[in-house]
Amino acid sequence: MEMINSKKPGKILVQFKLDLSQHPDMWMWNHEPVYHNGEPRGWVTSSAYSFTEQAHICWAALHDVIIKQSDSFHVKIAEKDISATQR
Q: How far does Cα 26 stand from its chain's mean position?
């Protein structure tokens, strides 16, 4: 059992809420790189603005990642690092 849990998954799909408060005119067009603890680990597959959340929401395909609660994520949009919170 421990051996199975110690392996990193191949690819996972994760939902993020982005903090674009400093860049309200910015928009994602998909395929933006996603960084996990400073390392590139995937890309945005789809995104939209949520009127309920009043924020941009995106789905990202990540490779070889084991996610912990303390991990940090960001998405690079137009050469700017945008903080992303896993949902």
A: 16
